[in-house]
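dumping this here before i forget
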Amino acid sequence: MRFIVFLFFAFFSCTSTDCRKKKDLISKEINFNDLTGVLKKIDSQEEFSDLILSNPEIMSPFFELRTPLVKDDVSQIFSLIDNVYYDSLYMDVKKTYDDFNEIYVNLNNSFHYYNKDSNFKLKPDLNILVSGFYNDVVVSKNIISVGIEYFLEKNNKYKPSDLPEYILDRYTPAYLNSTLLKSYFSQFNVINESDQSMLNEMIAFGKLYYVVGAISECEKDNIILGYDESQFKVLEENEAFIYSYFIQNELFFENQSKEKQKYMSERPSTYEISPQVPGRIGRWLGWKIVSSYMDQNQITLEELLLEVDFKKIFYNSNYKPT
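structure:
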């Protein structure tokens, strides 16, 4: 048994005008560091090295730098922010996000919802950088660092070039908060590593998605699950069929990695069922099972993340769509 990272509902009541637009902190839970302006002002490799040395807990993990610093490593990273495109990229970021206040408030309030019923309070620092597409999200227990340029609008001139379109669709402002939360809370999501069944993996993803949905103010389900509205509608309208498909093909306790990947991994579609069915449906079905379990059991989000008995969740969920 160990903690495993997966990269990548019960909602609190609010009106539609409140959803994801609230500008006020409920209570201060996390700190915020805007490093975009600092990086923009860097004029030399020496200044960049000084910035790394003065913020090693942020900069070294984010840029994957060795300790002590290696000059060639620093030079390679510095080249990403010392080029003719960086200023334009920075301006696109500022046009999209202005002062990043909404990002901070949304994330801070999510931690408020989680911490209020948890024994162990989580209070990481949020760090925002423009890295020249070096890294998107890096997390540890005390830090959430995001290369904010990854999350520009879909039609922006500058977008990461190493991601397929069906993944790139989620690198937009609408998916930012849930992406940060999924990346962070995956550290605390316990899975029974000794069991290789698909159901074990499904429940692990389901737990993570449920927690993120529960602490995200009025976030739509499709955003939490990483689908657009049309993809999510296909899944919801075919829920009973997909469940019966898993039953009939004995997929819940499938152990073969190649077979599991068809239903758990990033793919544009689950072709085994239909080209219209999006990928990762095992994760979606795991979320459905966990949601049904939480509807009938009074436990905290912290307790859910720590629950390692996936069979307990499955059999006590009474999940059976019709």
